[in-house]
Design a protein that fits this description.
This protein is of the alpha/beta class. It has one domain: TIM Barrel. About 50% of the residues lie in helices and about 10% in strands. The chain has 16 helices and nine strands. It has a seven-stranded parallel beta sheet with strand order 1-4-5-6-7-8-9. The protein has a two-stranded antiparallel ribbon with strand order 2-3. Strand 8, helix 15 and strand 9 form a beta-alpha-beta unit. Helix 9 crosses helix 11. The longest helix has 24 residues. It is globular. The protein starts with a helix and ends with a helix. Bound molecules: coproporphyrinogen III.
Length: about 350
């Protein structure tokens, strides 16, 4: 069974001899060839140049037996296409150009209709990847959730307390809804473009879904994700990744998403048992396991696989992105453990 078929079978909760595997941020700084490409061109140029983005996506595929390739890009291309660019802070983290401080700045974003044209380089990168993979691996597209994007846009970058975006939510709901509505419309068009260019599945990163009060998760984040899922072609695999949203897994499962990507704080086998049988789960090794030793990485991978034995609908992954100081030998050990699993 080839990797793409294996990945799609897992999304459809069909029984498999072993789960498909990929890891979040598999194209990134832990790879020497990525660091070299980035030293030469810079991150933003890599994102905007289809050949370079496709090359970065292919680097982990050439080195490891991953069953899926993920488009090399960033969730922040959407704010950028709406008129709010991004850069990186010296000390780490994101700095947005401006901070959205009032309603008129939110009204000025857009138009949403121009997003796909401004991000046509993403469709080109996707098409290049599709051709290069030739159906051998699944090809994943992605984007941020409307809420997670709004945190960067309203906070003006990476945040510690998310106080500004929460204040907007609590103090001026119509303006909050205006922003989230624009992001939702943009993401629907963007994901349709990615699907048109060959994406086999799309992951929505709700990285900051866990920072809003549990009682407000629906209004601040999930209802917008649900609207996106509803606008996708019937049955197309959407993966929802939430960090700190373990309390909302059942609600996420009823959005129509086919796969829930689960962070490391949840017991994956318990999550599997608690969800409807037609919803697959993805995850959820702690990324720091890949900073230890190959022996430990292999052991922990097998322990997770053992806990999932007999459960259909599992895609092996980490609970969050691989860390820049992860060891290549540990990634190899993870892949060996999965591909030799019996
Ligand atoms: O997974 C992959 O291999 C695909 C590439 C990918 C990137 N960003 C490339 C990237 C994906 C899926 C993302 C998503 C993304 N971007 C998220 C959601 C995923 C998550 O981790 O929760 C978020 C929150 C962002 C915003 C963002 N971009 C952050 C917080 C950072 C790190 C900033 C820092 O301090 O370094 C980025 C930069 C970024 N995006 C890198 C990569 C490989 C690192 C840039 C570098 O090489 O220095």
């Amino acid at each position: 069974m080839n990797s793409r078929d294996r990945f799609l079978a897992a999304c459809a909760c069909q029984p498999l001899d072993r789960p498909p595997v990929w890891i979040m941020r598999q194209a990134g700084r832990y790879l020497p060839e990525y660091r070299e490409l980035k030293a030469k061109h810079g991150f933003l140029k890599m994102v905007r140049t289809p050949e370079l983005a496709a090359e970065a996506s292919m680097q982990p595929i050439r080195r490891f037996a991953f069953d899926a390739a993920i488009l090399f890009s960033d969730i922040l291309v959407i704010p950028e296409a709406l008129g709010q660019g991004y850069t990186f802070r010296e000390e780490g983290g994101i700095a947005m150009e401006r901070r959205l401080e009032n309603r008129s700045m939110i009204e000025a974003l857009g138009p949403e209709g121009a997003v796909t044209e401004r991000l046509s380089y993403v469709a080109e990168a996707m098409a290049l990847l599709k051709r290069e993979l030739a159906g051998s691996r699944a090809l994943l597209g992605f984007g941020g959730s409307p809420w997670t994007l709004a945190t960067y846009m309203v906070e003006g970058g990476s945040s510690e307390d998310f106080a500004r975006v929460k204040a907007l939510y609590y103090e001026d709901r119509p303006t909050f809804d205006l922003l989230l509505g624009k992001l939702t419309a943009s993401l629907i068009a963007y994901f349709k473009m990615q699907i048109g260019a060959g994406a086999d599945a799309i992951q929505i990163f709700d990285t900051w879904g866990g920072v809003i009060a549990g009682a407000d998760y629906e209004a601040a984040s999930l209802r917008w994700i649900r609207a996106i899922v509803a606008a996708m072609p019937e049955g197309f695999p959407i993966i929802i990744y939430g960090k700190g949203t373990g309390a909302h897994l059942i609600d996420q499962a009823f959005t129509g998403a086919r796969v829930l990507s689960v962070d490391g704080s949840n017991d994956l086998a318990g999550v599997r048992r608690s969800l409807p049988e037609n919803v697959a789960v993805q995850g959820n090794l702690d990324p720091t396991i890949l900073n230890t030793t190959p022996e430990i990485a292999g052991r922990e991978t097998r322990r997770l696989l053992e806990s999932m034995r007999g459960s259909a609908g599992h895609i092996m992954n980490l609970g969050h992105g691989i860390l820049p100081n992860a060891k290549i030998g540990c990634v190899e050990a993870l892949l060996d453990a999965v591909t030799s699993w019996k």
